[in-house]
Amino acid sequence: MSELPAGPLSRRDRARADTVREIKATARRVLVEQGVDGLALRAVAREMGMTAPGLYRYFASREDLVEHVVADLYDELTDTLEEVRDAADPATPGFQLLSVSRAFRRWATTHHAEFGLLFGSAGERVLDPASMHGDGERPQQVASRRFGGVFAALVARIYLEQGFPVPADDELDPQLQVQLRNWCTKLPVALPLGVMSVFLSCWIRLYGMVCMEVFGHLRFALDDAEPMFEAELRALGEVLGVADEYRPPQGG
Fold this sequence. Notes:
The protein is an all-alpha fold and 252 residues long. It is built from 12 helices and no strands. α11 runs antiparallel to α12. The chain is globular.
């Protein structure tokens, strides 16, 4: 998709920007109503009263459109998390992290189709997984790093401000050390490998719990996964030394 010019937009550029926003909003609606397999340029064009070739004036391909929808969804999710983080009272990193984690689950469980595109196999059926994450500068890569940075920054603040138990480097598997070290080089603040190991373990638990709930993989045991999620959240608080900042969800 061609970039809009910097500075004040002309009437033509404003009209183009409005059309681009409408296309992406329509694509999201098609995703929610028909699933990722129904997210075709022809379907989006039909919803907008356009021809499929007409959409190519705005997006080069279905993949190009999906990439920008993915980036917008990541930004929407991250905006939600940052709003919750900034409104948390007390504004301590521990309480903020617990609040943000709960907000992540809330967004995921109320946006099943969107969550599947960002974090499930649905997205992989449309885009190369390597193009959705990583160190590149594609819109969805930039947006996904911003999302991950919300959690990473809060865990880093907890460690730097009050600390929590972490394994020594020589307690970690050598192959894990190499991978964690490579990951650490990409971070703005140097942290011990043990911190990254604990953070990754916590993220796997949180993300895994949410994914299993959204994709229906807990129904064999749980009709309502919220109590189990809250138990996991309290356990993560113990690991990070912020268990005393846990508060039950409002109304729970």
